[in-house]
């Protein structure tokens, strides 16, 4: 055996380094233990920051830029602190009601200022696309939706399901482009649905055109009178624990010859990724699926094309959100957050700083967005 071939074989016996999926039982167990140690260190940093430790943003970012390339390139198994991160869960979604409470049902005034709220581009809690030369966040979000339109092949007259439609930004923008498109939005967040119901009564909103229908509920329970020409889902699948069951449900809602477009945060490492901090405070039971996970699930839907969106796009988006969040402190600090505002502010800053910096590491080549075009298998 040559030395070039020997090291990959040797790696299965070594803990911490290499692909955790190939480890011997002893090396796997040791790697899982090391992952818990790494997660405990991140949690300790998060807790002291949230509780008042002053760390300059530049120092914080330097710490992330130093550590994450080592983990991405050499020890990706350490980025999965829980066993459930590595495999599918039993249900389509876990902790979904808790997720609405801690993330999506925060004060609308705060979210509007952080995410942006314009005439056609409503608050949108997913990345903008900056690589086409966007000058600002609103333009980056327009470019991102234009990319979805092109890759999904939306044509006038389509009936489209938006699974997890947020505040209705994507349907509103696409309805403004196509006078005969119809949209159905499916959303579990009551507060987001209330925002859209208000827009559905606003004559200046395309959601009031009569071509938008809103369904408040989850994918498991959703029933519709007709099948859809196109289905899109932006960012939701980080909160979906079982791709097999979710794709089976989406396939049942898709007409023959229809197409599904999924846009998710993804990692180009051998395993899926999460963290104790995001699980506890930001995205309960959320995970970033490995870039190959969606194409691997091809029982009911199959991937016919896919794209990787470089993580620098999300880095710029999160950096913009952080700057907007910081700039609006005077107007948002008196809103109701369910905790002392000073603590909430530090928790939110840690979240925006951490994720925004991780996306920028390794020139955005390891942590970014995956986009998948799917049809019936």
Low-confidence segments, given as residue ranges, are none
Write the CATH architecture name of the largest domain: 3-Layer(aba) Sandwich
Helix-strand topology string: HHHHHHHEHEHEEHEHEHEHHHE
CATH class of the largest domain: Alpha Beta
Shape: globular
Our count of domains comes out at: 2
Radius of gyration: 21 Å
The amount of helix comes to 40-55%
Mean pLDDT: 92
User: Which structural class fits the helix and strand makeup?
Assistant: alpha/beta
Distance between the termini: 41 Å
- CATH homology-level superfamily of the largest domain: Vaccinia Virus protein VP39
Query: Strand content of the residues, in percent?
Result: 15-25%
CATH fold description of the largest domain: Rossmann fold
Major sheet attributes? 8 strands, mixed
List how many beta strands DSSP finds.
Answer: 8
- Total count of helical runs of at least 4 residues: 15
GO molecular function: methyltransferase activity
Pfam families: CMAS (PF02353)
GO biological process, one term: methylation
Protein name: SAM-dependent methyltransferase
Structure description:
GO terms for molecular function: methyltransferase activity. InterPro entries: CFA/CMAS, SAM-dependent_MTases_sf. Keywords: Methyltransferase, Transferase. With 377 residues, the protein is an alpha/beta fold. It has two domains: 82 residues; 288 residues, Vaccinia Virus protein VP39 (Rossmann fold, 3-Layer(aba) Sandwich), CATH 3.40.50. Strands 1, 2, 3, 4, 5, 6, 7 and 8 form an eight-stranded mixed sheet that branches. It is globular.
């Amino acid at each position: 055996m040559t030395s070039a071939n020997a090291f990959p074989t040797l790696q299965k016996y070594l803990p911490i380094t290499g692909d955790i999926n190939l480890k011997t039982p002893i090396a796997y167990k040791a790697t899982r233990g090391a992952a818990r140690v790494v997660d405990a260190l991140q949690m300790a940093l998060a807790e002291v920051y949230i509780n008042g430790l002053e760390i300059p943003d530049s120092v914080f970012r330097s710490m992330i830029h130093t550590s994450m390339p080592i983990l991405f390139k050499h020890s990706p198994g350490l980025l999965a602190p829980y066993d459930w991160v590595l495999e599918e869960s039993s249900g389509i979604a876990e902790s979904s009601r808790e997720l609405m409470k801690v993330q999506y049902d925060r004060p609308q005034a705060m979210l509007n200022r952080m995410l942006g709220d314009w005439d056609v581009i409503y608050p949108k809690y997913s990345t903008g696309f900056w690589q086409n030369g966007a000058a600002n966040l609103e333009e980056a979000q327009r470019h991102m939706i234009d990319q979805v339109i092109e890759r999904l092949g939306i044509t006038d007259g389509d009936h489209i399901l938006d699974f997890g439609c947020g505040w209705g930004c994507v349907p509103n923008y696409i309805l403004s482009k196509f006078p005969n498109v119809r949209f159905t939005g499916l959303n579990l967040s009551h507060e987001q649905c209330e925002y859209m119901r208000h827009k559905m009564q606003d004559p200046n909103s395309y959601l009031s055109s009569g071509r938008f229908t809103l369904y408040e509920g989850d994918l498991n329970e959703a029933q519709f009178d007709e099948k859809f020409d196109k289905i899109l889902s932006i960012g939701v699948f980080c909160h979906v624990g079982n791709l097999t069951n979710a794709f089976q449900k989406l396939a049942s809602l898709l007409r023959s010859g229809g197409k599904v477009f999924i846009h998710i945060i993804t990692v180009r490492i051998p395993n899926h990724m999460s963290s104790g901090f995001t699980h506890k405070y930001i995205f309960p039971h959320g995970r970033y699926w490995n870039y190959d996970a969606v194409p691997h699930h091809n029982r009911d839907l199959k991937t016919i094309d896919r794209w990787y969106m470089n993580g620098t796009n999300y880095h710029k988006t999160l950096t913009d959100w952080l700057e907007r969040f910081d700039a609006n402190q005077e107007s948002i600090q008196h809103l109701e957050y369910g905790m002392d505002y000073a603590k909430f502010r530090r928790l939110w800053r840690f979240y925006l700083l951490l994720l925004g910096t991780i996306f920028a590491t390794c020139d955005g080549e390891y942590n970014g967005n995956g986009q998948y075009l799917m049809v019936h298998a």
